[in-house]
Amino acid sequence: MEHLQLPRAVEGLRIQRVNNPNENADPAMENEATAPVLATLANPRIHQNVDQIGHLVFLSFASVIILLSVLMSTDGKQAVFLPGFTSALPDSCSSRRLLGVDCPGCGLTRAFICISHGQLGEAWRFNHASFVIYLFVAIQIPWHTIQVWRIRSGKWPLHWPFIYWIPMAVAVILLINWIWTLTRFL
After folding, report:
1. 114: buried, middle or exposed (CB in 10 Å: 19+, 13-18, 0-12)?
2. What pLDDT shows up at residue 47?
3. Domain locations in the chain?
4. Could you tell me which of 88, 68, 36, 58 has the C-alpha nearest to residue 157?
5. pTM for the whole thing?
6. What is the pLDDT of residue 125?
7. How far apart are CA 28 and CA 30, in angstroms?
8. CA angle, corner 37, sides to 36 and 38, nearest 5?
9. Which backbone phi and psi does 80 adopt, to 5 degrees?
10. What's the mean pLDDT in 127-138?
């Protein structure tokens, strides 16, 4: 079997696991349980390719969102216009159309357009949470660019354990903003 050169951190994990097996575990089950893990660790390129694709997808989405918010325009009320078109895009909020109630994301498109055009007061009027969400989307561009660069350079992507809490915090901010917006008119 060909010996693969593992990154030092992964090799250390593998050696530690092999040298310190669980004393109560059946040795036959130990091999079955750890074989897929060791196979994945032995071929980190598979993991890095998947990581790179994920980072490229997020980078693309964030870039398109920011680019469209720069290129699109709004009339300051409800209408949103694509560049070069004089007719407005149709209202896309199903909650507003069907129930007559704004959803938590209502006004985000118009707010993003206003933020990109420097109209911060208008953005605040459309959706108070838009500043936090715009910042979250904008930060994705340098973060995922660095991650793709690191992977392509043969380095491991940066890992920050709290990175997964940020989308949850953004969702909570949206929900709080929505509840506040709904209850202030009662």
Report:
1. buried
2. 63
3. 45-183
4. 58
5. 0.70
6. 92
7. 5
8. 95
9. -125, 135
10. 93
